């Protein structure tokens, strides 16, 4: 059995488990960014429920700017109060909906210490699906795809 799927109460503040979570979140971010760098983001499918997630996200957050996410607003008491019901709608739909997942604050930049924040998996899906469908992530392939290939060829 995967140790990360066991109940959190079993671990208290075990640093080795925190390190495993951080590694898993970083690996997920790295894979996702590599996908964005190589494929048209509009063609990416993140879950079997992409259409529902996107539709509900835009109904509940019609003016949410996905190009640059303000972490303080997202995690403020008002932000949490608005996001909580959205996230809970997917509790029995999206596996690991509440897992910590890294999100780029500024969609035009890559993951790094200043441009990464920890969000729930369903928040990541909602924001990244909007970025992909609305063309916000298109700059990643243009700006980072060629550089990646040039680096490999050199």
Automatic annotation (TrEMBL):
GO terms for cellular component: cytoplasm. It comes from the Eukaryota. Gene3D superfamilies: yst0336 like domain. Residues 17-141 form the Polysaccharide biosynthesis domain. This is Polysaccharide biosynthesis domain-containing protein.
């Amino acid at each position: 059995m995967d140790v990360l799927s066991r109940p959190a109460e079993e671990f208290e503040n075990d640093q080795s488990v925190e390190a495993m979570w951080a590694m898993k979140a970083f690996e997920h971010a790295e894979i996702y960014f590599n996908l964005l760098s190589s494929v048209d983001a509009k063609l990416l499918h993140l879950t079997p429920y992409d259409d529902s997630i996107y539709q509900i996200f835009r109904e509940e957050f019609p003016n949410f700017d996905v190009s640059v996410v303000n972490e303080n607003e997202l995690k403020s008491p008002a932000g949490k109060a608005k996001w909580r019901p959205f996230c809970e709608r997917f509790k029995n739909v999206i596996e690991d909906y509440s897992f910590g997942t890294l999100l780029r604050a500024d969609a035009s930049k890559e993951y790094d210490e200043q441009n990464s924040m920890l969000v729930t998996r369903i928040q990541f899906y909602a924001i990244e699906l909007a970025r992909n469908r609305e063309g916000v992530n298109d700059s990643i392939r243009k700006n980072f795809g060629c550089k990646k290939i040039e680096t490999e060829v050199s």
